[in-house]
Amino acid sequence: MRPILLNPGPVSLSEAVRKAAVNSDLCHREPEFFALQDRVRAGLLDIYACDRAEWTSVLLGGSGTTALEAMLSSLLPRDARLLVVENGVYGERISRIADIHGIEFQAVEHQWMDAIDFDRVAALLATGQFTHVAAVHHETTTGRLNDVSRLAELCVEHGAGLLLDTVSSFGAEAIPFDSPAFIAGAATANKCLHGIPGLCMVICRKSAIEQAAEPPRSLYMHLPLWSEKQDQASTPFTPAVNGLQALDQAMKELAEQGGWQARHARYRKLADRVAGALQRYGVETMLDPAEFSCVLYSYRLPANRSYKTIHDGLKQRGFVIYAGQDKLAAEMFRISTMGDITHYDMERLLAALYAVFAP
Predict the structure, then answer these.
(1) Could you give the CA distance from residue 340 to residue 358 in angstroms, rounded to a whole number?
(2) 292-314, pLDDT tens digit by residue?
(3) Among 60, 95, 206, 222, which has the highest number of CB atoms less than 10 A from its own CB?
(4) Where are the domains of the chain?
(5) CA dihedral of residues 70, 76, 82, 84 (deg, nearest 10)
(6) How many angstroms separate the CA atoms of 116 and 284, rounded?
């Protein structure tokens, strides 16, 4: 019986995606690879019906953080002044990246459980000091889905560009590609797209590539270099070949299943079933369910059970969950419903939850 990953990436793979990753050995300097690369890049744009004349996708090897760091270090010009919205681990990571690369920034700090205070953001943008805003779409620290459409509206109002960490939302949540303020989103193959780890991407406006930082802040993560070479049916460094093979198949499955909207609906249905079962056993969500992304819900640890007891009990029955991060580790656990989870898997999970949580 295969283990089911209920952590927020990597995910349980379909058998076809798993086989695609290792189906054949492929040299990254051969025409077959470049046909694959072109197909994946175009397919990523098609997921959200992005105009190929205006948008491009750039593939890199690495985790979602690689894409995030490449996006920020490349697409923020040398004279950029960045406003970072922090309400979790990953918002704080944006500030850390900006600091490492010497990007001038100011953080709008929130408690990790808090929604974005848009009045504070608006007041800072109204000063005219900031050229760009960066934020996390789905903050997996708590499962909160930040209202990035409202953030995009503020950016339009105040003439700022918006860069988003969409690592845990791309492929399952609405993203404001139609906003003139939205410049780029960082994403990864091994979350909502159901690919394997090791491949990430930045979906960005071509104009942002043209206005990127010069001189570059990084060699490997400089997006204009990757974009230029990929447009020329080439690659500057050895790419994540197996990751592209797997993602090609995974995106076929996404399209066959109805696209990101259908995936959103399925994730939400599964997450609500889990939440309903846990509620019957007295386990509360950390946020109002309406505040969660469809991808992940966080739960308050019950007084009579430790995280280790819950984790180990579920793992014995074939399911892997996630602890709370850092200062929330003693308060919560998290369950994600991404990946290839069948009806049979869900019935097994509900039985496992009963075994672990029922009085």
Answers:
(1) 27
(2) 999 999 999 999 899 999 999 99
(3) 60
(4) 4-9+259-357, 15-256
(5) -20
(6) 22
CA neighbor of 113 nearest in space, from 270, 267, 332: 332
May I ask the CATH architecture of the domain 4-9+259-357?
A: Alpha-Beta Complex (3.90)
Across 12-36, average pLDDT: 96
Q: What secondary structure letter does DSSP report for 285?
A: B
Q: For residues 149 and 219, give the distance between their C-alpha atoms in angstroms, rounded to a whole number.
A: 33
CA distance 239 to 257: 28
Percentage above 90 pLDDT, the chain: 98
Question: Is 103 in a helix, a strand, or coil?
Answer: coil
Rg (CA), the chain: 20
The three-state secondary structure class of 18 is helix
The pLDDT of 35-63, averaged and rounded, is: 98
Contacts of 111 (CB under 8 A, 6+ apart): 87
pTM reported for the whole predicted model: 0.97
CB 293 within 8 A of CB 144: yes
Contacts of residue 228, defined as CB under 8 A and 6 or more positions apart, other chains included, come to none
CATH number of 15-256: 3.40.640.10
Q: In what helix (H) or strand (E) does residue 57 lie, and over which residues does it extend?
A: strand 55-61
Any residues with CB less than 8 A from the CB of 243 and at least 6 apart, and which?
21, 61, 189, 195, 196, 197, 198, 199
